[in-house]
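Sharing a chain and its predicted structure for anyone who wants a worked example. Both blocks are below, sequence first, tokens second.
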Amino acid sequence: MAIFPQTRTRAPALPPTLPRLPSLRYLGPNWYATVMGTAIVATAGASLPVQVPGLRAACVVVWALSAVLLAVLLLARAGHWILHPDQARAHLLDPAVAPFYGCLSMALLAVGAGTLVVGRDVVGHPAAVAVDAVLFVLGTVTGLAAAVAIPYLMVVRHRPAPGTASPVWLLPLVAPMVSAAVGPLLVPELPPGQWREALLLGCYAMFGLSLLATLVVVPLVFGTLLHRGPLPLALTPTLFLVLGPLGQSTTAVNQLADVAPGAVSAPYASASGAFAVLYGVPVMGFALLWLALSTAMVVRAARRGMGFTMTWWGFTFPVGTCVTGAAGLARHTGLHAFTWLSVALYALLVTAWAVAGVRTLRGLAGGALLAAPLPLRPETARTT
């Protein structure tokens, strides 16, 4: 089964010197969600405002797994483009698939942040900074490109019909917000003065870019639900993607407030701290509202026979951003309520990650996840 419908095209004949890897033909950019969902388990666990014996070591192991997954997927996706360029182009021209190109940026950024947060225990601080800096630059450039290119394709080539807005549309738009959230980790590593201030304000600019774009798309998504009813069963987990910009923006303002005193003058540094709380608390409230609504929709879909697809990875990274957002609010407000909220959300994250990971391994072993995608059946294309 596939996370999205794809355009069926005939596989071109390969020269005899090139190996046939038919399994790579349908390896879409959505697979980077496995890297994102794994890396956030490590960074979110390290951000918890409580001490749990053995948690740090477990986070290091999970980070290492995310790094391996990233390397494997980068190679596999390169093979996909080399061996199946027709399918790769079809992905870009498919409105259901193209938004997933934002996942590449977020995968790079998530692993880079995890390297500096927990991976430094293994590779050392200087190497961790170097890795994070490289992945941050690559992820940010890729994310900004996706934030422009994918909406451009949607307007010029995809032309989606009215009332068909999907939470997946948020993926290329939230990528710059991830840069805004992980960029502050590198601020203290830069020389004081212009370099630190430039990175700090650049992160604020990406925060605003992503936030305003999100404010355009989320009402469209809710309007689609109101007027057209629930999403198809297989796509119901994508409702959790709305949590991504909410939790990530809350994380970003708190992370930026942490490093602002060493990058900008006192009035702006104190304003950053106040903004982190005044923005983060109401947004976290809306995130919890959306979490409750999405959970109710998922329960409804499960009762109607929702099976496993790669969309289940939507339960991981967005929830992880809410963990780091709640942890940041606990740090800046001192409220125990946010501490326990972050712990509860982390338990949900780990559970979702474990379930999605096991089901993905089963799907790979059976060959279903890399097989040609099947169209949604008419009777389940949209349930009301």
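Comments welcome. The two ends are 22 Å apart (CA to CA).
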